[in-house]
Amino acid sequence: MRPFRYERATDPDGAVALLSRSPQAAFLGGGTNLVDLMKLDVARPDLLIDIRGAVSGVIEELPDGGVHIGAGVSNSDLAAEPLIRERYPVVAQAVLNGASTQLRNVATVGGNLLQRTRCLYFQDITTACNKRQPGSGCSAIDGHNRDLAILGTSPDCIATQPSDLAVALAAVDATVQTVGPDGSRGIPLTELHRLPGSEPQHDNVLAHGELITAVDLPPLALAARSRYRKIRDRASYAFALVSVAAAIDVADGQVRDVRIALGGVAHKPWRARRAEDLLRGGPATEDRLRRAAEAELAEAQPQSDNAFKIPLARNAIVRTVLDLVETGR
Ligand code: SF4
Predict the structure, then answer these.
(1) Residue 202 alpha carbon to ligand 1 centre in Å
(2) Ligand 1 atom 3: the closest Cα is on which residue?
(3) 3.90.180.10, 3.40.50.10860, 3.40.50.1440, 3.30.43.10: which CATH number matches 5-50?
């Protein structure tokens, strides 16, 4: 591992100021992804700003009935919090599906959202990768792409966003709060990550030095009937081939409202708005769910080895929402 300097920040503005000392500086939360990437020589920060003492580690109810989650909350504490388990079970389930207990104990909410793709070539510095080294090419397009994206890809990158938590937060319309060199702002979770386009080196819309301080969940009654389904190659901890975060409100047999987000299919959590629009106002039957899922996936562009993700995602949407309708969970 290359040498680096280490500083501790005690508040968000101090963390932002410390980071501005170097364009190669990086924030350090739990370090469960960043430190791995440093060992692989993929990440090469010359200065780490430890922000665990700079951002809140508290979860609290907001006056409007929503929930405020400090960016320093551990994944374990988030999954165990009664407010989350009862009002947003999809969020707790996503976190529990995301990593081992040891990792959850260390990983933070903010860091979870910013973990980097697990594309094999991104993690192997002997290969071409536009995300790691812009302009070098994409080894995955003609290589091992079974795990990679089918929606929103570009000729420059077909990577997937790896965070399960981000998919669940996209489904419940969470907002990410940040502080940066230009002040503070709130970013809808669905707009935090970006599609690769011609700049796959940028995973998200955060500026250099912009720090996630919290995630706010809105009051959302239908989120109490929500679930996360993750399909992966092995039952123990692995990244999603496809995942679905869903919540639904059904009254008198009609879908009053529904939220669906997909993981493992794109460079960002994929909010299935087309499917949601098709489902609202009618019965939640298997046939309607199938047609809504197929409409959502109509523009999928699979690679040589991942066309299986299209029927997998369709079936996962149908089964997950039907489970919610039939059993409430
Ligand atoms: Fe790199 Fe993206 Fe291609 Fe993977 S898919 S090799 S991350 S450019």
Answers:
(1) 12
(2) 138
(3) 3.30.43.10
Is 179 buried (19+), middle (13-18) or exposed (0-12) by CB count in 10 A? buried
- Residue-wise pLDDT for 24-61, tens only, equals 999 999 999 999 999 999 999 999 999 999 999 999 99
Closest CA to 176 of 116, 207, 217: 217
pTM, two decimal places = 0.98
Supply the DSSP string of 182-237, one letter for each residue. TEEEEEEGGGTB---TT-TT--BSPPTT-EEEEEEEPP-GGGGSEEEEEE-SSSSS
Which atom of ligand 1 lies closest to the CA of 196?
Answer: 2
pLDDT digits (tens, 9 = 90+) for 158-171: 999 999 999 999 99
Can you tell me the distance from the alpha carbon of 51 to that of 309, in angstroms, rounded to the nearest whole number?
A: 37
Structure-token match 């929402």, residue found: 321
CATH node for 55-329: 3.30.390.50
Tokens of 76: 């374990």
For residue 152, CA distances in Å to 208, 248, 268 come to 24, 25, 9
* Domain segments of the chain as ranges: 5-50, 55-329
| CA distance linking residue 256 with residue 251, whole number of Å | 7
Ligand 1: which residues within 6 Å by Cβ? 117, 119, 121-122, 129-131, 138-140, 148, 157-159, 200
